Amino acid sequence: MTRVIKGQTLSFAEYGKAVHESTGAIAIGDDGVILWAGPQALLPQGFAQAEVDDYGDKLVMPGFIDAHIHFPQYRMLAAPGKDLLDWLTRFTFPEESRYADSGYARAAAQVFLSRLFQHGTTSALAFCSVHKICADALFSAADAHGMALVTGKTMMDRNAIPAVEDTPETGARETVELYEKWHGKGRLRYAVTPRFAPTSSDAQLKVSGELLSSLPGALMQTHLSESPREIAFVKELFPWSKDYTDVYDHFGLLSGRSLFAHGIHLSGRERARLSESGSTVVHCPTSNTFLGSGLMSMPRLREKSRPVHLGVATDVGGGTSYSMLATLGEAYKVQMLAGYKPSAHELFAMATRGNAERLKIAHETGALEHGKFADIVVLDPKATPVLASRQELSTSLEDVLFSLMILGDDRAVEATYVRGRKVHERRESHLQCRHPGESLDPALGQHVR
Ligand code: GUN
Ligand code: ZN
Question: What is the CATH number of the domain that holds 152?
Answer without folding.
Answer: 3.20.20.140
